[in-house]
Design goal:
385 residues; mainly alpha; DNA polymerase, domain 1; hpI Integrase, Chain A; 3 domains; 3-stranded antiparallel β-sheet; 15 helices; 49% helix; elongated; disordered N terminus
Length: 385
């Protein structure tokens, strides 16, 4: 039997089989365009009216999920396709999807958003630690889920982000490996005479990222001022080798070069000119500073193979090109270069990031500060009294 309802009450009726009162309220349409209704029930009509009023108020305040039946798995797919695909680099998106596919979906993918709790996320993170995953990897899982749920809030699908309310796994920072001055000299000696000698020198001298160095063009070099302008990076994605903007806004920077570095680049330019003349019509003009023997950009994977050969020739064992960046920063700090200057040279997003990574190398500066304060507060004349 259906009873006439008052304005704004929604639809209220009595279910004949049970005698309970049932109310339904239209809550708009979901992202797929389908009409959404919410249902409540109670022993009396008055209780149903009260529940519907609460529903209407929560909906008006944006506290009620529009579609609580969407699963975590479906949300991840929609988030990746409709949002992240247009906001992050392809390699970053692939990383997000890999994290979701291998770690989030198997455990939480079937759960509906309306039922997802902080305890579920804590359980997921605990499970991953028990599986032996590094704390940094578990933090990445939490970050991906939290970003996805942030978007769900913007879409009006949930009212809170249970991932950000979960406990963050503690990460113990490990110090990156760096070359000693002797190892750096051995590395450069082994690189002498190779086609990419200037590239090896540049990486360990300035700390440029591999993609930044491979993305350099001759127009980026100011020969008069001995300054190199970092404006792009070379990377490989599904399209092949492409140039993109630098990693962050601060990564776009000017780097001053020492005289020996400039000499190496100019020698490299002459060698490249000879190769161009030798190859003739088989040379592809690209204007990149560092090229293959045909003039095309250097594939980062091919460079990695050549880099390993130089390390082996120097007797250094297995190293990664990014460790040249760490080495450059460490060597600069060891020579007394101030932290904020090193941060600018590296193109870090903030000096805090530089301090977090390389602060342990500033012991001489801390000792100097202690000595200065000691001399100020307890002058030698006080010890004579």
């Amino acid at each position: 039997m259906t009873t006439r309802r008052a304005n704004h009450e929604g639809s209220i009726y009595r279910r004949g089989s049970e005698g309970r009162w049932v109310g339904s309220l239209r809550m708009g349409r979901g992202p797929d365009g389908r009409l959404i209704r919410k249902y409540v029930s109670a022993p009396t009509r008055g209780e149903v009216v009260t529940k519907l009023l609460v529903l209407r108020r929560e909906y008006a305040d944006g506290l009620l999920p529009l579609d609580g039946h969407i699963t975590v798995s479906a949300l991840l797919r929609r988030w990746a396709n409709d949002v992240m695909r247009h906001q992050v680099e392809e390699t970053t998106l692939r990383n997000y999807l890999s994290v979701a596919r291998h770690h989030i979906v198997p455990t939480l993918g079937h759960r509906e958003l309306v039922d997802l709790r902080v305890t579920d996320v804590d359980h997921l993170l605990s499970l991953k630690r028990d599986e032996g995953l590094a704390a940094s990897t578990v933090r990445r899982i939490r970050t991906v889920l939290a970003q996805c749920l942030d978007q769900a809030i913007r879409w009006g699908l949930v009212s809170r982000n249970v991932a950000t309310l979960s406990r963050t796994p503690k990460v113990t920072r490990t110090e990156g490996r760096t070359m000693t001055p002797d190892e750096a000299r051995r590395f450069l000696e082994a690189a002498r005479g190779t086609r990419l000698e200037a590239l090896y020198i540049l990486l360990i001298c300035t700390g440029l990222r591999r993609g930044e160095a491979l993305g350099l063009m001759w127009e980026d070099l100011d020969r008069e001022a001995s300054v190199l302008r970092v404006a792009r990076q070379l990377k490989r994605d599904s399209r092949g080798l492409v140039t993109t903007d630098t990693k962050t806004f601060r990564s776009r920077r000017a780097v001053n070069l020492p005289e020996r570095m400039m000499d190496a680049l100019l020698a490299h330019e002459r060698r490249q000119r000879d190769e161009r003349n030798l190859r003739g019509s088989h040379w592809t003009e690209t204007a990149f500073v560092f090229t293959s023997r045909d003039g095309t950009p250097v594939d980062p994977r091919n460079f990695y193979r050549e880099f390993r050969k130089v390390c082996d020739a120097a007797g250094l064992g297995h190293w990664h090109p990014h460790e040249l960046r760490h080495s450059a920063a460490s060597l600069m700090l060891a020579q007394g270069v101030k932290l904020h200057v090193v941060s600018q040279v590296l193109g870090h997003s903030s000096i805090r990031m530089t301090s977090d990574v390389y602060g342990h190398l500033l012991e001489p500066d801390r000792h100097e500060a202690a000595q200065a304060m000691g001399s100020l507060l307890w002058p030698e004349t006080d010890h004579d009294n």
